[in-house]
Amino acid sequence: MAFAMRNSGVSGWGDSFDAPSCWIWLQEGAQADQYAEFTDEFTAGEGDVSIRISADTTYALYLNGDLVYAGQYADFPHYKIYDEIDLTPLCRSGKNSLCIAVWHHGKGHMGYYPGNAALRYEVWQKGDCLCCSLPETLSRLSPVMKQGLQKRITPQLGFSFACNLTRRDDWLRQDTGDFHPSAQVVQTLPLFPRPVARLNIGQPLPHDLTQISPTFVRADLRREEAGFLHLKVYSEKAQEATITFGEHIADGHVRNDLKGRDFSVQVTLQAGWNQWTHPLRRLGCRYLELTAGHPVSAEALTLLPTVYPLKRRPLPRGLTPLQTRIYETCVHTLRCCMHEHYEDTPWREQALYALDSRNQMLCGYDAFGEYPFARANLLLISKDCRPDGLLSICTPSSDDLTIPSFSLHYFTAVKEYTLASGDKTLFAEIRPKLESILTAFLSRMEGDLIPVFEDRCHWNFYEWSPGLSGKLMGVDEKRFDAALNCLLILALTAYGDLLALVGETSPWQDLVPRLQNAVAKHFWREDQGVFINSTEGETASELVNALAVLSGVLPPKKAAFVADKLAQPNSGMTPCTLSMRCFVYDALLSCGDKWRTHVIEDIDCRYSRMLAVGATTFWETEDGESAFDRAGSLCHGWSAMPIVYYHRLIG
Hints:
Largest sheet: 8 strands, mixed
């Protein structure tokens, strides 16, 4: 079976050769949360050797018993990604043993769009295919990994795992006899090369081990990290142990059961020493705890770090020691939230959101000068496809849930990328997606405003503050929100600016002043000097008033008046959370340089409070771990925005 390629202007797998490889899976068939192992061998001569490989859902690749790489790019069946990996450093002249472990999720979550359980690979040297995936390829169900467990960590992160180390054999050396031929998976997928660099998988992270009791060991990685579980543990007898992972020990131990969220994995230890690495599930944490029913001890309980390769740009000149600490902590926060794509948090979700990633992209331009990663994320988001024309809540995902406002933030991110990178090709590639999103909003226009979306799948969320967080999986009655309409103005403006860059004019340019006038008419309260949030109630918020300033709803004098109120600590408006303070800062700075010092002081004050209590990365909200029923993230990429303002105002 030959690969079916789509002409995208990018050379893809299948060009210029006729290898007979095909998609394969186990003869037993597929089920959700399934682990398969495949073995092959090839004979290599002198010269470079490489493999092309793709799987659903993720894979770990071994050559001659050594881990080469692990981690399938997050993709869609209609946008399937393959890796091309150099095997030469681990390749021998003569016979080589190739082993591949594949974990098929099968059930969708907010980071996985379900596809068929399948593996495809080809090993090449000097134009010759040395081996490839065929029905004759040997495979089996993993005897170590628990099959079909389907225990979720969170709805966003998907499945946890359980393993039985007493059942390990030497399959990585192909010293086992229970493999059987595979079955062909008949499918034609458009294949594209990975658009970003692969992760660097490092050596075990340093950590501090504490024997809390004979049956309880804790590891402190010293700061938030992300990577693959690695352990070397001694057990007096064969027994089941639980490993929990988390970002803090505020309760005296790691929290692992948080109202349906379960941050634990199960490992059955053999009697004696157990040394094992699991490269198919990335964890984000600072602390790991191992508990068992009988005595255990550990020499290692840590992670193999998975790090996206980045180059640092110089720090802004003139930073104080405090600001340098804040900046460096922001950089580490960003690194923990960059893997196959941007992630909101490496601990709880590992999900790509259009809003969160917009903040992360801006920070990355200044901290790393990194544009290809941002481009790949924006392109991946554009591959999402929903009947209502909006973007799904996360990408890639088949989840029915969406946050309409995040579809509008996407326009800002595309414009900022285009201006920062000078690359106009992305806009050309995703322009149909942008137009379909705008059409979805504008088709609902009533009296020059857009009402909220009313279905259960539409979460009218703007930020995590009272009155703006919406009803998750609830039905809203018809109303008009100022934030949604201001964001639509900003999206239309961004789209018009993008068209101007290619010498065109937006067909919707006349809608902007109409929307601006309607927002001012329906939401401005002259007696209070503020915009209210909604046609339901009279509450005002910092976010809505900042968005009103940025969207040009007010003339300059009134905008300056609103800016004065935004800078007051007791303005009477609902305060912004960390993720949205950038809009307050931008609104202030749009009204003059006099706010530069205020912005820097506000950043220093808020972020120094987190550092003062031991933060090694910056939090989802200023409430820290206690937020969201004690499930607050202590590492959130959207909170790294001080980088942007330090460069803009100090650098």
